[in-house]
Write a structure and sequence with these properties.
By secondary structure, this protein is mainly β. It has no helices and 11 strands. The radius of gyration is 13 Å and the shape is globular. The strands form 2 sheets. Strands 2, 4, 5, 6, 9, 10 and 11 form a 7-stranded mixed β-sheet that branches.
Length: about 120
């Protein structure tokens, strides 16, 4: 079993930056892919970004390309989401997820989820 804990959310002004962290504990593995999603009540879950086990491949939703950067530090069992040029529409609860795969895929759901961290962008 793997436990994921997100942190780094908060309130920022439009155009500002924020970095989210996702720390894994338990039976972790460097071959796990990491992804970020955002989900607000009454709305569909939205994919944000994902990264392969080595960090060599990254994937982004069109809405965040050029603004967000996903990364990881396997020595610390931690994933990151650097968010720049934030917009009010980025406001949401952000969730970290992991798949027991070298490269992330949409053919199956993530194997593990974090508890979420709130990001609020004011105008």
């Amino acid at each position: 079993q793997v436990q994921l804990v997100e942190s780094g959310g908060g309130l920022v002004q439009a155009g500002g930056s924020l970095t989210l962290s996702c720390v894994a504990s338990g039976q972790t593995c460097s071959t796990y892919s990491i992804g970020w999603f955002r989900h607000a009540p009454g709305k569909e879950r939205e994919f944000v970004a994902a990264i392969s086990s080595t960090g060599g491949r990254t994937y982004y939703a069109d809405s965040v390309k050029g603004r967000f950067t996903i990364s990881r530090d396997n020595s610390k069992a931690t994933g990151y989401l650097q968010m720049n040029s934030l917009k009010p529409e980025d406001t949401d609860v952000y969730y970290c997820a992991a798949q027991r795969l070298i490269v992330p895929t949409t053919t199956r759901d993530p194997d593990y989820w974090g508890q979420g961290t709130q990001v609020t962008v004011s105008s």
